[in-house]
Structures are given as C-alpha cells and as structure tokens.
Predict the structure.
Amino acid sequence: MDMLIGEYSNTMDDKGRIQFPAKLRSVLNQESLIITQGLDECLMLFTTEEWASLTAKMEVKASIFDSRKRLVMRRFVAPAQNVEFDKSGRLSIPQSLRDFASLNPGGECIIFGMNKYMELWDAAVFRKFEEESASSVQEAIESMRDILL
C-alpha cells in the first residue's frame, strides 16, 4: 500500500457522514476502515491490516494486570469500530466517536494522511490545537533530528 499522505477538507452531512477523499480511497483499496478515539481531540482511522498489526503488538505487551495498559486499551481499542464505505464513498461516523472529536453535522472537517493511518479533526478544534501547540513544534522537530538527518 502506498503512503497515506495529504490534508483534505470536507463537511460532515446532516447524517454524520463525510465524503472520503478519492485520492486516499484509491490508495486504501478497502471497503471499510477501523475508526477509534485519537490521542488528541481527533479520530484515528486505520486499514484493517494496519489495525490488526497494531493491536497484535499491543496484546503482546498489554497485561490485564497492568492498570496503565488497561487504561490505554479502554481508551484506544474499546471504542474502535469497523465502518464501511457506502456506495458514494462516504463514511458514517458513529455518534460516540463524533462526540469525542466534537464533529458536528454541517461542520468543517479535516482529514490528515499520516503515512500508516489517518486523523479526522473538526476544523475549529484543529485550529485551536495548532495554536496551542505552536510553541512546541520546533522542540518536537528537534527531538527527531536523528531521524530527519
């Protein structure tokens, strides 16, 4: 599979559906995606293969007797849902996940391709996140200097 990259804007319709970008859809070649709560105020979208790989790694490391790992599993794995594309290439975002990410019908959304997964943000929430994290961007980039050079 090619990398999932790019930034795409769209509007959520009155039924909580978003038209998925054709460019990403052609890279995915999937009938459905796994959608779960993100690590910020967004949703994370995975192919079924990438989700299976990630959760298999988590299961190896996640003991039911470790409270921190249970917390991660509850926050990340438990809310995950398999969502199929409709015939028009739309995804219907489940209400519980829309609530988590502050996605509202008629609201502007942004989808980011993040190589192996995607993020779905409410545009206003993302702009606020971007403003609040602006001072940390340089430090974050510098922390990756060994990878980037």
